[in-house]
Amino acid sequence: MLRIHFTAQDFARIRFAPRPAPLQELHAALTTAVTRRGGPLFAPWRGRVLRSLPAATDPLADLVPAGRPPSFIDVLGDTMAGGFEQIRAANPGLVRSELERVYGAVPAPRWIRGLHAGDETAWRTLHRAQRAAYETVLAPVWSVVQDLHREEFTRYALTVAEHGVAATLTGLAPGNRLHEGVWEWPGAAPARDVRLDGRGLVLLPTFHHPAGPLLQDTPGHSAVLTYPAGPGLPPTAGRPVVPAAETLAAVLGRTRLDALRLLAEPHTTTSLARALHVSNATASSHAAALRSAGMATTTRTGRSVTHQRTALGTLVAGA
């Protein structure tokens, strides 16, 4: 069982990753492929992945000789290049200690020993392996992953606004519970207790890992919980993706989505109502709903009010 211990400060610092992280999603996909998680439903996808991985990706297996990779490779960069820059910037002491933990007394391959020593050739080996794996496994479906992430982000934001943070956390996956400041995930392996102690938590959905959470717990940084989301099967390039506007309209309602898009620019209640072809009362209601979800702000000047969407609203709208 995984137990995450929150303080009041940690609850205030829970956030949702605004965009998918290529390296995290890649590591989740490779973990699923080699551990046979997902059962027979994942078998066709797993077979395709394992058959198609080029030899350049072989060094990645050396990083996980016992099933638990070194923590310094788990980063939240929005791009492959940005993610690798974060990995390369890892504290050399952390790199050495994590490689020593992973290998223990077992002899390590030559390039791993080079990584331990800070050799640039070894770092280039790792970069090439990650790039080759990304191009094979994720690049063909990355646009689908981005669409799925946006849908999950929207669902999370609306659930928090309507039901609060605690109910939203326990609703991320069946079986978990929040009790007296401890978030419990039964069945998660290995069993561990993680104390956030004010560092906060980042929530990151994955669409390639069907069972249980993956937790990145690096000292001095916010913990990152990667949890399974999406339709339950790995995305494919042939997946019929619902256009973003239709997906958002199904969640928000067509008129409210139109309001969100219009609020890219400031609008009074009257001008918003005129643009939407609705009454002032209806426009005010839509603005209030968007405001309660954190997607819009309302500023009063005398007898006039002005509405404009927030950064969250812009992200949800897909702009």
Describe the structure.
- The protein has 319 residues and is α/β, with parallel strands linked by helices.
- It contains 15 helices and 11 strands.
- The strands form 3 sheets. The protein has a 4-stranded mixed sheet.
- Helix 9 packs parallel to helix 11.
Characteristics of this structure?
single chain; 319 residues; alpha/beta; four-stranded mixed sheet
**Main pleated sheet:** 4 strands, mixed
The oligomeric state is single chain
Structural class determined from secondary elements: alpha/beta
Q: For the CA atoms, what is the radius of gyration?
A: 22 Å
Overall body shape:
elongated
SSE string, helix = H, strand = E? EHEHHHHHHHHHEEEEEEHHEHHEEH
The order of strands across the largest sheet is 3-4-1-5
The number of strands is 11
The portion of residues assigned to helices is 40-55%
The chain-level mean pLDDT equals: 87
| Strand residue content | 5-15%
- Helix count? 15
Low-confidence stretches: none
End-to-end separation: 39 Å
